[in-house]
Amino acid sequence: MAALNELKEQAIEILKSNDMGGYTVPTHGLYPFQWNWDAAITALGWMKTDESRAWQEIDLLLKGQWENGMVPHIIFHQQVDSYFPGAKKWGVEKALPTTAISQPAVLASIVKMMTEQAQDKALAKTALARILPQLVEYHHWWYRDRDPENSGLVVSYHPWESGMDNSPAWDKSLAAVPPVDYSYTRRDLDHVDSDERPHAKEYDRYLYLVDFFKAANFDSDVIYRDCPYKMYDVGIISILHKATKDLVELCRADASQAEHVATFEARLKLTETAVQSLWNEEQQSFLNQDAITKEQFPVLTTGTLLALYGELATTEQAEKIQTVLRDWLAITPYAVSSTYAKCEAYEPQRYWRGPVWLHINWLLALGLATYGFEQEQQQLKASASDLIHEAGYYEYFNCETGAGCGGDAFSWTAAIALHWLL
Ligand code: GLC
User: Fold this and answer.
1) Is 395 a catalytic residue?
2) What ligand 1 atom has the least distance to the C-alpha of 411?
3) Which residue of 45, 209, 211, 418 has the lowest C-beta tally within 10 Å?
4) Is the Cα dihedral 374, 380, 383, 389 positive or negative?
5) What tens digit of pLDDT does each residue of 33-77 get?
């Protein structure tokens, strides 16, 4: 078992070795670009060793922001052939190529944490003044483009947008998307065993959606009308909700952005009411829902638990979720597994179908703390700590054995360890 100091040094070393000169790759080989929520989380790790480098991470992410406000899920800062689907396949013709979807909007919450934790207050102040208008545009984009009818619930168009790619929560909706009818070479399997990655039948549909966005000329109205995959994803909705709350506070403190407060507050209210339609009493949980068929899926995942992080559950609902969570942790005790082991589709080793992800456990712990669930919060922290002590800084961990899986020397795992555990 590694000593604390040694672990800290290792984590900082990982950030440095994944640094491409201003942005951090999640891990070399498997993910050679800058990812949206990885960048935000990784910046928290940089805060522990180099604050100016932390702000730079956010600046480079926002360099990829679209004119309509979207912050893409991948920014292709360099040309690399070892990743598929890369910039060419996505076909976004901009000075800085990107994908055409976003990722969970944890960014504003993290920027707020960074300003609060900064030792160099002057640097943080200047950085925030630069970044805040871009965060505002990003959140306006979410609500305008992804909830054009003001329902209170934003939709997601791709499992990759959830950040929880092959979660069983959307198996049924993804199966309704046509598969592509051409052959292609996956590059993820060059780096990681196939029993830890999504199946071919899922990849065929991921690619269909990528082609669909391009065929629609990335037109928001066309995509909203015709996209064959539209999901009310509790994870995305909750993370966005919390981030908008944090953004409102940042805007209130800056006179030049105060005009946005009322709009965002109205959106928060709308979501707080609308999210109740996703509560399922039988499952004692919020559930994801197909926004086209309106079918709800009784699949409990860390995404559905994130309603606590979003502060969207009533006290009574939160207590019911707590009861489920206790059972969850009794079956798979290495922190919270990404899928509840009682679900049919659960697999302890396959990516988002069971394994433990450290940054998600951190978000859950924040949610548990908000509701005063101290014991569970401590339990998550202790088992997350065991994982890195025993296995190191992997992308994710087998939830039954604690073994490291996926990419090694992983940026967000190192960053969250620095921020939360060490
Ligand atoms: C995978 C994960 C996603 C993450 C990306 C880079 O696609 O599912 O959440 O952002 O890898 O680490």
Assistant:
1) yes
2) 12
3) 211
4) negative
5) 999 999 999 999 999 999 999 999 999 999 999 999 999 999 999
